[in-house]
Amino acid sequence: MSGQPIYVPKSALARWFESRLPLLGFVHHSFVAFPNPRNLNYWWTFGGILSFMLGFQIVTGVVLAMHYVPDSKLAFVSVEHIMRDVNYGWLLRYAHSNGASMMFFAVYIHMLRGLYYGSYKAPREVLWILGLIIYLLMMATGFLGYTLPWGQMSFWGATVITSLFGAIPVVGGALTTWLWGGYAVNDATLNRFYALHYLLPFMIAGVVVLHIWALHVTGSNNPAGIEKKTDKDTLPFHPYFTMKDAFGLVVFLTFFAWFLFYIPNYLGDADNYIEANPLQTPSEIVPEWYYLPYYAILRSIPSKLTGVIALFAAILIFAFLPWLDRSPVKSAVYRPLYRIFFWIFVAVVLGLGYVGANRPEGNFVIAGRILTICYFAFFLVVLPLLPFIEKPRPLPASIADAVLGKTAQSGLKT
Amino acid sequence: MANRLGLCAITTAGVLLLGIALGSSAGAAESDSSQAHPVPTRQSWTFAGPFGKFDPEQLQRGFKVYHDVCSNCHSLKLVAFRDLADPDGPDFSEAQVKALAATYKIEAGPNDAGQMFERPGRPSDHFPWVFANAEAAKAALGAVPPDMSLLAKARTYPRPFPLFIFDAFTQYQEQGPDYIVAILNGYTHPGDDHWNLYFPGHKIAMPRPLKDGAVQYTDGAPQTLTQYSHDVAAFLYWAAEPKLEDRKKMGFRVMVFLIVFAGLLYFTKKRIWAGVTGH
Fold first, then answer.
1. Tell me, what's the ipTM?
2. Is B95 buried (19+), middle (13-18) or exposed (0-12) by CB count in 10 A?
3. pTM (2 decimals)?
4. Pick from B250, B261, B272: which is nearest to A250 by CB?
5. How far apart are alpha carbons A228 and B167 in whole angstroms?
6. Per residue in A85-126, pLDDT tens?
7. Quick check: B277 and A260 CB within 8 A?
8. Do A410 and B273 touch (CB under 8 A)?
């Protein structure tokens, strides 16, 4: 950023190549010499973790696709064939299904980190919106993938979610028929879902490239929420952040391995081990855990169309965060009131998730409605109005001050 | 910094407690139905936990229960005879599997004359169903008995908050076999063979399938309903999750590797950063 020297490869061959396509220099600037704020904490390792998980899902998914059959009569059995007869098929399949959950777990932490430290604020609005597009594509991919094993929850989940489009006035019915390729979820639906499930991850990869590009234009935000000014504020990406990211990734993989090897069905639904039966509706249709808060919002609203609008609004509202939040201070570290509301928001989302997992009866309906109001109030009331009553704590003069000030006090070498 | 973290922690804890209170009061509304449907008792299984292994003798007994009783109505279509020889499973000998397979008639063909014909089963065949199709089963029994290949993973019972959180740490994954044991022991109305204590709504299509002495064991294990229900539930869990031992064995190696690797990375990272921040 601040006057990087031109990268000159050491070997003659690499110099020859570099003068024709400066790929090595690009990698060097982006992932070796790239100056990162020196105060990034471990919440910043989730971007790297997500990139790894995307690659992991694509690799396991491509191998699974070699054995899977997208046919409504064969899909369920072909997944069990993978589980029983394909060498290490059980490993691939459990890795892929739990990997999806891990990716959502990581993306939620990544998003909450952005929310806590105000990473969406100027000049990172485009970076944030690209991230939201990735998240939307992830949700579509996860939903499509969940249909493929063609269990009861696959089938009925697909039916419920695609039926949401039926709520659109005038064209809803025709649109749903068009999506299904028939008058109900059927073989044609499964085939197109499979094709799209294979396509979308590569679209995600494309948007990830734009996301990282945008990140490298503005540089990372950081826990202090102030921009880097001098070289003292930064450290080169390698070895400092490659090492920090590597450690974070391996800890994350240990967490992943616990699920994959010891509780591989913990995050799944028992009903999905029953083959899809269009004539028998399960007693409860529940989406995967990562959609539960939105599912709760959908079911909290009595009118179907309004419910669908609220569902999509709950997701798309993240795109407007940079303009809804009026505070000039980015990081919650210096915003005493925002910090409290942030944690309330986290609790509200967890509460919505719990409500979404339960039958909409009795107190769950009331709880769902209250929490839905709280969810939207955070974006539409708290974020715009909070700056008028909040007194932010004084910001440090620079990132270096934020980090080194403390260490200087404790008498350690900087 | 400590102050700030403390404030965060207190706020989160407060809101979470509020959520729990709300959730448990929501749960209270359902308590009448949960009293009518007691929760299945948690059983002790050899295959539970990080080092769980199937007990081949138990699986062989469980297979006998399936073979003598369950298979009269239920299919097991995803399991092949050869699977019974799996050393990480029932561990029958090759000869036993071959002999067993030969006792089944498998429809094959068409032959050169265009006719379908029956031949004795081979180890590579899957278990055939006594019924030609689901409609035939329904006509004979009044309902279609579910296939048993995945039954032990396809059945469960709800674990309320906060138990389902603890389950992730204690690795409780055996709700299915616990539920199966509960159902088999749940026929507690002497006069009504279709009444089951644990079945939702209590009216179950399957009449009481097992009672003491129904299956002859040759290994001296007690011939009681309790024993049968545990053995067949264990067999069904193996049928649903045949690679369980492979998975847990590999899991342990992977965990050891990852933890050691993480430790090495941590100290390397610390060393690299030592020079710049003083941490």
1. 0.93
2. exposed
3. 0.92
4. B261
5. 45
6. 999 999 999 999 999 999 999 999 999 999 999 999 999 999
7. no
8. no
